[in-house]
Write a structure and sequence with these properties.
about 500 residues, alpha+beta, 3 domains, eight-stranded antiparallel β-sheet, five-stranded parallel β-sheet, 22 strands, about 40% helix
Length: about 500
Amino acid sequence: MIKKILIANRGEIALRIMRACRELGMTSVGVYSEADKDALFARYADEACCIGPAPASMSYLDMEKVIGAAIKSGADAIHPGYGFLAENAKFALACEKQEITFIGPSSRVLELMGDKVAARREMVKAGVPVAPGSDGCVSGFDDARRIAARIGYPVILKPSGGGGGIGMTVVFAEDELQKALESTQAIAGNTFGLADVYVEKYLENPRHVEFQILGDAKGNIVHLGERECSIQRRHQKLIEESPSTALNDKLRKEMGQVAVNAAKWVGYQGAGTVEFLLSEGKFYFLEVNARVQVEHPVTEMVTGIDIVKEQIKIASGLPLKVTQKQIRINGCAIECRINAEDPLDDFVPTPGKIRNYHCPGGAGIRVESGVYANYTIPPYYDPMISKLIAWGADRGEAIARMRRALYEYVITGVKTNLAFHKTVMENPRFVKGQLGTHFIDRETTLNEDMRALMEREKPLAEKLNRTEEKKKVAAIAAVGAVAQMYCRGR
């Protein structure tokens, strides 16, 4: 059994993993950059060490420093969280060579799933539906033009080694193709070190549905139901929920079994997701995210299964204790990603010092956060403040609780996307479950509604910034302050 885990990440996910370690009676080791020396996760860890300057390339992405910290601390395992080194096959292989348990899939699986063309080929072999497109990377413009003519416009160009939507380009007509191909190849080469690009049919307003999977070393694989992740901007998810309003029992069973079959085909071990695009009743493979997802709490809330603890148990060689028949979806859960960004200015990041911070509570509410009052959000990383999750016996109750929780949330000092989430929770089409990956683009009144909401809340925001009101907010945040004091004094 693993005894000591180094968490190769930061922010709320690092804290989330450390809490799981504490519940399992394991020692946690945190690593932090110079910019994160005052971060809550660095204080919460049983042990912590600085691994470099603020830029991620000199700290969190430096494999030698991370592994060196694990060796020095005596950690027998590394949990990569999500992002940074989480899906880096070279890092997983380096851990394997040092006989440090990598809490995730094998380096072989990571390498296979990290190459989108190779992953697509494997899914075809496994009988997983894929969108029409090229069999491999295109050799040049003539090849791309031939494939696009065969499958029909619009098409989407994707970097083979890409992720997170980076470099993907939609092409609506042949006269746009050459310029788009050159641009995508350039971005792919500069970002991923590989200029290979492939072509797929572009689905104009699909739903993004993913299935959470768990697989142990004995070959047992189950899925924990689906999450709908269609509310996105620039291919980045903002709101997730489970279950999806688009799936009936028959389609849920079919997609879940396909996800399990895909995982079994590649010999998947650990936690991960098989992602699909759903359009007009048909679903197509998108990718495998070979790690824990940002939105994993949504599934935890409706299944009662602690995914992070299951990751650690699986990495320790323990078998799954649940079968597919034992897994039940109870109620509905929704997650809003609360970010330091301006939704009225194309969601541009707004790092800075949080002046007042009070997170919501009450029945059915969960907050995953790594910040506190007077904490400064650094400009070097993702501007996520927290993940706000609401559970209800049904979707209507989950939405009502999310509305109430957003009403209670107080964050001042930095611009946030709270107004965006409040507006979406009141949107008639969202309430009806009429979702799609272009929801934000097509809901043309969102900005107007957000502006109106922010104008109505302006007097309250100004009141919170007055000197006499700061004392009240500080008192409300006393529990967080006590936690910080405890961490400092250890």
